[in-house]
# Entry
Amino acid sequence: MTKLAIASDHGGFALKEKIMQRFADVDWLDLGTGSEESVDYPQFGKAMGEAITNEDADTGILICGSGIGISIAANRFPAVRAALCVNAEMAALSRQHNDANVISLGARIIDEETAYECVEAFLNTEFEGGRHERRVEQLS
# Structure
């Protein structure tokens, strides 16, 4: 399995730690934060953007309170296609149709089990290509 980056702000820290424990067989690149002490989410979206751009990781998981701000920060990098997901179907479709390489989760929006289901779907779904290929190319 390729290296998977993960990052969160303070609002997503607890869920980040639980996801890393739940998926212990993954080769994690932990981009922070390291506690529930208040931090600014754009720093961690940027860290993810840099990790994907520099090919330190192929895919990633972002977590903040809503999942919105941190995904906006990461999506400023052309190499990133971060998708905010609230259920496993969205996670699977983000991979199948959009070739998303980063999933963003809202720790205050979804429960722990739903987050696990989203990550599982994201990690185990391939890009379909075909008619979706030209659409994804238009995103660059």
Observations:
- The mean pLDDT is 96.
